[in-house]
Amino acid sequence: MLLFNPRSYHPEHPDEHTNEMLQAVAGWFETRGLKSLKQDWHERTWNHDFVDFMRSGQVLATLMTPQGYGQNAAWNTLRNVEFAEIAAFYGITYWYTFQVSMLGLGPIFNGDNEQVKRRAAKLLKDGAVFAFGLSEREHGADIYSSSMQLIPQPGGGYIARGSKYYIGNGNEAALVSTFGKNSETGDYVFFVVDSKHEKYECVKNTVNAQNYVAEYRLHDYPVSEDDILSVGQKAWDDMLNTINYCKFNLGFGSIGLCTHALYESINHAANRTLYDRQVTDFPQVKRLFTDAYCRLAAMKLFSYRAVDYLRCASAADRRYLLFNPIVKMKVTMQGEKVIDELWDVIAAKGFEAEPFFEIAAVEIRSLPKLEGTAHVNMALIVKFMKNYLFAPADYPEIPQRTDSADDTFLFHQGPARGLGDVHFHDYNHTYGQFDLPNIEVFKAQIEGFRKLLLTAGPSEQQVRDIDYMLSMGELFTMIVYGHLVLEKGQMEGTDPDLLNQIFDVFVRDFSAYATGLHGKPGNSEAQQALIRGLIQAPVANPGQFERVWQAQVYALNGQYEMAD
Ligand SMILES: Cc1cc2nc3c(=O)[nH]c(=O)nc-3n(C[C@H](O)[C@H](O)[C@H](O)COP(=O)(O)OP(=O)(O)OC[C@H]3O[C@@H](n4cnc5c(N)ncnc54)[C@H](O)[C@@H]3O)c2cc1C
User: Residue 131: helix, strand or coil by DSSP?
Assistant: First the structure.
């Protein structure tokens, strides 16, 4: 899979307008240059100029107007994630403005209020940004406890009273989709407010960063029926369903940051001489770079395959409910590992003021923590473990989705419950088509994990222990991760050397997670013995390692550098 490179980027969407728009986005950043990018980041300047550019190029309007709300409008997930990857390649601020706009639009286009949908489409055309007001300072991930009140008024209508915390774009958004409760009925409700209204107070930026992550307060803000998006169970479902597809973008943000950091790191190391040798000749440097590259390639293969499942989703095929939180949780945490590995190589350079790396090093950390922490997403992933491993179902083959269709189902996902009814196609079918040495070792690890579950599965007490189940979840996630990496690898004809090298990393990671599980208190002796069996070494192949290093990793030296 090719890494994004602005120098050779030629998007291949079926319509020329999309290709020109995505190219123009990359071109806008390249023309601006690294120096001004870094200056804005250091001075924590919000991205007004990017928002102006997007207005003039109708970027957000093109990306996020669903079919039926504009001329040739289509909500195309592939196009959206490609934009997310490009924007994050230049910094999370640009990505975040788009991301929270999508979150803000979700409850609108999922909702019941046709008038607000039209309003939002018009505002998108006018170049507005949007926001999603869910989180509150006191309640964090406990979204059941929302304190925002919508208070019915005697003459009709409502006033809204309360505050929200950590709300991106809360400084500028034309519509802030706000989640609260009806003070009389206790029903959940989603309604929109305008950040420029006199009863809306943007209190502060909660972070000392270029992103604007607002605290806002509604001081008896007048809300009419026209501003209500959804009520009761529907409001709750719309909130979760919005997060379902928006959190997907986090993985692509991570891919963008890592890709830019990788180019910079290899350029630096390959052109630095210590003790009369190139830094890239140190064996540990080769290993760190190759591992980082394999992780990034896997992040991309998995995430872009997950796009196909999201675009093909329907009421009868809800497999995206597992794959999306993995893009969110696993891919973003792999991004942290990539940056850690690169930083171990470039050392002091990673602190310098001029290069891009400093941005990636700081911002990569936020991605696993947004839209539900890693724990919350892992708790969700574990719910699918039984059906995925032990109760496969038949589905039609999911093709690569490069068409420009509107992903209408995203706005009609229905009730958020019923996760236990979701079944998956048999992962054995995909793994069985590969016999590369490290994939064979990984298959044995999968078998060992199944045996553990079948013969010495977690006790009732262990199932209730979230810490224990999160550790199990890491092992389970790797099986699903490898599954879609192989599906995409097969479709793209990925080099077998690279696939085998990716699974070299996976075998080591699986072993490390098994070690973590082994160390949990409360394991029985039988469990400990079976878990020890999961710890395996990859099959050493120095020749293949050298080929991947030379032809794919070291070859990135000089391929891209952002001009000042
Ligand atoms: C930069 C940034 C931007 C953000 N933007 C927005 C935004 O635009 N809109 C918005 O609404 N929110 C936004 N958020 C809020 C974000 O979604 C929350 O940070 C997140 O929901 C978690 O809340 P918390 O950080 O307060 O953690 P807490 O809720 O305080 O969590 C504490 C600990 O408990 C664990 N935990 C909580 N629940 C569970 C569970 N069910 N199972 C297992 N463990 C659990 C957590 O993993 C964590 O370790 C943003 C946050 C940040 C940092």
Answer: strand
CATH of 247-389+427-555, one of 1.20.140.10, 1.20.1110.10, 2.60.40.1640, 1.25.40.10: 1.20.140.10
- Identify which of 212, 155, 220, 223 has the alpha carbon closest to the alpha carbon of residue 189: 223
Q: Whose CA is nearest to atom 4 of ligand 1?
A: 166
* Ligand 1 centroid, distance to 482 Cα (angstroms): 28
Cα–ligand 1 centroid distance for 141 (angstroms) = 5
Distance of CA 71 to the CA centre of its chain: 29
CATH class of the domain whose range is 16-129: mainly alpha
Q: Please tell me what DSSP assigns to residue 45.
A: -
C-alpha 309/C-alpha 321 separation (Å) is 10
* pLDDT tens figures, 424-470: 999 999 999 999 999 999 999 999 999 999 999 999 999 999 999 99
Token digits of residue 174: 């034309």
Q: Using pLDDT thresholds of 50, 70 and 90, give the confidence band for residue 520.
A: very high
Q: How far is the CA of 43 from the centre of ligand 1 (A)?
A: 26
Residue 349, helix vs strand vs coil: helix
Residue with tokens 């915390």, as numbered in its chain: 165
Ligand 1 site-directed mutation target among 132, 135, 144, 205, most atoms within 8 Å of CB: 135
What gap in Å lies between CA 360 and CA 370, rounded to an integer? 16
Could you tell me which residues come within 8 angstroms of residue 473 by beta carbon, excluding any fewer than 6 positions away?
A: 378, 379, 381, 382, 385
Residue with tokens 């710890």: 535
Provide, rounded to the nearest whole percent, the portion of the chain with pLDDT above 70: 100
Instruction: Identify which of 260, 281, 263 has the alpha carbon closest to the alpha carbon of residue 272.
Output: 281
The secondary structure of 201-234 as a DSSP string is EEEEESSSSSS-EEEEEEEEEEE-GGGEEEETHH
The closest of 247, 549, 559 to 376, measured between CA atoms, is: 247
Average pLDDT of the chain is: 97
Atom 38 (ligand 1) nearest CA? 141
Q: Name the one residue in this structure whose structure tokens are 């793209």.
A: 492
The candidate with the shortest Cα–Cα distance to 235, out of 335, 110, 355, is: 110
User: d(Cα 4, Cα 89) in Å, to the nearest integer?
Assistant: 9
Q: Which of 335, 323, 324, 320 is nearest to 368 (CA)?
A: 335
CA distance 156 to 211: 38
Q: Which two tokens stand for residue 200?
A: 């809306």
The stretch 495-518 carries a mean pLDDT of: 98
The sign of the torsion formed by the CA atoms of 188, 194, 197, 200 equals: positive
- Among 111, 373, 104, 378, smallest CA distance to 236 is for 111
Spell out which residues line ligand 1, taking CB within 6 angstroms: 100, 132, 134-135, 140-141, 166-168, 207, 213, 366, 369-373, 375-376, 379, 466
Q: What is d(CA 358, CA 262) in angstroms, rounded to the nearest whole number?
A: 12
Ligand 1 centroid, distance to 379 Cα (angstroms): 14
Global pTM reads 0.97
The two three-digit tokens of residue 220, written as one number: 């008896």
Domains of the chain, residue spans? 16-129, 132-231, 247-389+427-555
